[in-house]
Amino acid sequence: MLMVHDPVSVLLNHTYNDSASFIIPRQYGTIPRSEIQLLNDNDKLTGTIAIDGKKMKIQLFYHNMYKVPYNWNGRYYLKLQ
Q1: What are 60's strand-pairing partners?
Q2: In terms of Cα–Cα distance, which of 21, 17, 12, 24 is closest to 50?
Q3: How far apart are CA 75 and CA 22, in angstroms?
Q4: What is the mean pLDDT of residues 49-54?
Q5: Backbone angles phi, psi at 27, to 5 degrees
Q6: What are the domain boundaries of the chain?
Q7: What distance in Å separates the CA atoms of residue 15 and residue 64, rounded to the nearest whole number?
Q8: What is the 3-state secondary structure (H, E, C) of 49-73?
Q9: What is the pTM of this model?
Q10: Strands 55-62, 45-52: pairing kind
Q11: Contact, 39 vs 21, CB < 8 A?
């Protein structure tokens, strides 16, 4: 079973790697976008990243009048090293 976010991958029968990289100032709490540095995205975003232990919730939005959600929004479990 293939589960993909884009139908082209199903038709071509392959997947691709994608990533988002952030520099955040701390490993806990709610961090506003103004404190987050995006390494591989030039889009202007608003919102927050919240970290609670090993859980992270990304709630970022493209800064326009429609407040379109960022592609990586969601809940994640962190592996801290």
Answers
A1: 47
A2: 24
A3: 15
A4: 93
A5: -100, 20
A6: 21-77
A7: 30
A8: EEEECCEEEEEEEECCCCCCECCCC
A9: 0.73
A10: antiparallel
A11: yes
Please name the residue that has the structure tokens 């889009």: 43
Average pLDDT, integer, range 4-11: 61
- Mean pLDDT of the region 15-37: 87
- Distance of CA 6 to CAs 14, 26, 29, 30, 54, Å? 11, 33, 33, 31, 29
Sorted by sequence, the CB contacts under 8 Å of residue 41 that are 6+ apart come out as 20
Residue 68 to residue 43: CA distance in whole angstroms: 12
Range from 18-32, 37-51, 61-75 that averages highest in pLDDT: 18-32
Q: What distance in Å separates the CA atoms of residue 54 and residue 5, rounded to the nearest whole number?
A: 25
